[in-house]
Amino acid sequence: MRRRLTYLTLLAVAFFSVFPLYYSVVVASRHNSALAEVPPPLLPGGNFFANVARVFDTVPFAMALLNSFLVAGSIAVAVMFFSTLAGFAFAKLSFRGKNILLLVTVATMMVPAQLGIIPLYMLMVKIEWTGSMYALVVPALVNAFGVFFMTQYLSRALPTELLEAGRVDGATTWRLFWHVVLPTARPAAAVLGMLTFMSAWNDYFWPLVVLTPENPTVQVALSTLASGYVNDYVLGLSGTAVGTLPLILVFIVLGKQIIGGIMQGAVKG
Amino acid sequence: MATLQATARRGHRRLVRHTLDLKLSPYAYIAPFFLLFCAFGVFPLIFTAWVSLHEWTLTSDVHTFVGADNFTTLLGDGYFWNATFNTFSIGIISTVPQLVLAIWLAHLLNRPLRAQTFFRITLLVPNVTSVVAVVVIFSQLFGRDYGLINWMLSWFGIDGVAWAEGTATSHVAISAMIMWRWTGYNALIFLAAMQAVPKELYEAATLDGASNLTQLRKITIPMIRPTIVFVVTVSTIGAMQILAEPLLFGAGSGAGGITSGGPDHQFQTLALYVYDLGFNKFDFGYASAASWVMFLFVVLAAGVNYLLTRRMGGAFK
Questions:
Q1: Angstrom distance (rounded) from CA A188 to CA B102
Q2: Quick check: B99 and B235 in contact, CB under 8 A?
Q3: Domain named ABC transmembrane type-1: which ranges (chain B) (predicted)?
């Protein structure tokens, strides 16, 4: 009996988790007039592709998708590489000031990003990066969470004996990194890469500040749709569906690994 | 003889190179992070403090030093205090039920169940959804005339709630968006911590006839206290910085100016106010002062919550 209640509760939560997304697809696949229907429609209509075409006509959405892919992709690759590099140093190499530097790294995860937005923007104006993807990519190439995540993983997963054996054979630190550390780090780095890709794809505030509506990422294009066409919910939700579904699909395919990564990071954090 | 010397020299050089490699390469490996952190993290932070002491706008190249003027103006700024109130109000309404719900959900998931992976994935779907998508979707759900939520409320005889227009109702709507996006994520973090609790504790408690709820209160919560403290601290910091939700809610609901947080500023948060000052009015000096005070509030709120949760966890023991 209590078991059944548990399942019912969890199913209800699963329903509430997915329903708003589903409903957005329902609205996105209908005509604007459907919004005034009582009761509201609960099944998808046949207007989805026409609405999506309207999205592409209204904002530079193809460019936004391309920008988002390039930005999120390059950030993810860079974070994977640099975090593994730093994680290797923190986990397995000994150097002066290591503990305090690791502590600083962890502490920076707590500083609110928004505090620095105004001078960061002024800096971008100065070096003429406003409106360009450099402004999104360069500051995000590596972050404290990634370094911490890889440090935790490598200190457990990388056998010190393997490194020592390599040293005896005369390998430099760099060769060890390339031939021993990178292969070992692959599973965790993949999870880190996916998490980074998703958060870069969904990043909103900084792109909104530093980009122009003519050269947007997906989120900036969506916010243009949401704020410029106040009464056209169908347009806004169609854009939302196109901008969100790719990520949701990736997540459904790789969700198990991603969740494993989050939970792994959580225990240690 | 000469070749022997050459070999020795080569050996010496190799030793030097080896020592240099051992001593220096770790610094080279962590350098990318620290260089970027200094350029795009520390420098802006310090520069904000400098700007806050000036009259500094985008339209003028002259930056007059005004000392603490921006800060004293802030103290008498009604909009600033309104934003402070809204931030705390939305923060409390969204965080407290969210964390209780997350612990309870994690507790439900922390037993042998079928379809564990399915439940975990659905829990995390809202978190994968971008905040823009969340607000667009929820603005529609919370629409006054044709929104799904008002339609459901009409079954109970409640008609036409104008969610975006009232202070309390807009805070509830915005909190619902935040809760939807973050409850599952926090539940998974709690679940991870719960799985590290030794099973024997529960077995012993069950033998003693302790109920499920008692086990949650007396075993689980005290055992995962570090994680609770961590999640509460992170959530507090997040709640103090809410920006996208009120910004887009103001746009999507058609309730007046986008950065004003509704016509009466009824849901303008601190972060939104700073954004309004900086990127709408281009008053960087005043905006910098406001963001430093906001930072102070964040640290204060996080610190108080940190101490409170540490205490509270202790009371369960």
A1: 26
A2: yes
A3: 84-305
For residue B23 the two structure tokens come to 């001593």
Is the CB of A13 less than 8 angstroms away from the CB of B131?
no
DSSP 8-state secondary structure symbol assigned to residue A171: -
Nearest Cβ partner for A116 among B48, B111, B113? B48
- Both tokens of B39, joined, read 């350029």
Q: What's the CA gap between B61 and B284, in Å, rounded?
A: 12
* Cross-chain Cβ contact A118/B43 below 8 Å: no
Q: What is the 3-state secondary structure (H, E, C) of B244-268?
A: HHHHHHHHHCCCCCCCCCCCCCCCC
Is residue A153 within 8 A of residue A188, CB to CB? The reply is yes
**Structure ipTM:** 0.87
Shortest Cα–Cα distance, B141 to chain A (Å) = 8
Please report the pLDDT score of residue A170 as a whole number.
Answer: 87
Please say whether the beta carbons of B192 and B224 come within 8 A: no
Measured CA to CA, the distance from residue A22 to residue B310 in angstroms comes to 40
* Tens digit of each residue's pLDDT (9 = 90 or more) over A237-256: 899 888 888 888 888 888 88
Contact state of A233 with B134 under an 8 Å Cβ cutoff? no
Which residue has 């993807």 as its token pair?
A133
User: Which parts of chain B fold into alpha helices (H)?
Assistant: 2-37, 43-52, 69-75, 78-109, 116-128, 131-141, 148-154, 167-194, 199-207, 212-215, 221-223, 225-240, 244-252, 270-279, 284-315
**A177-185 contact pairs (CB < 8 A, 24+):** A177/A85, A177/A88, A177/B29, A181/A84, A181/A88, A181/A92, A181/A154, A182/A84, A184/A154, A184/A157, A184/A158, A185/A84, A185/A87, A185/A88, A185/A150, A185/A153, A185/A154, A185/A157, A185/A158
The pLDDT tens digits for B177-236 are: 999 999 999 999 999 899 888 988 988 998 988 888 888 888 999 999 888 988 888 888
Max intra-chain CA distance, chain A: 77
Q: Which two tokens stand for residue A191?
A: 């999870």
Q: How far apart (Å, rounded) are the C-alpha atoms in residues B61 and B58? A: 7
Neighbour-count burial for B252-282, b at 16+ CB within 10 Å, e otherwise? bbebbebbbbbeebbbbbbbbbbbbbbbeee
Say whether residue A261 is in contact with chain B using an 8 A CB cutoff. no
Residues in chain B: 317
Closest to A220 (Cα-Cα) out of B247, B128, B180, B239: B247
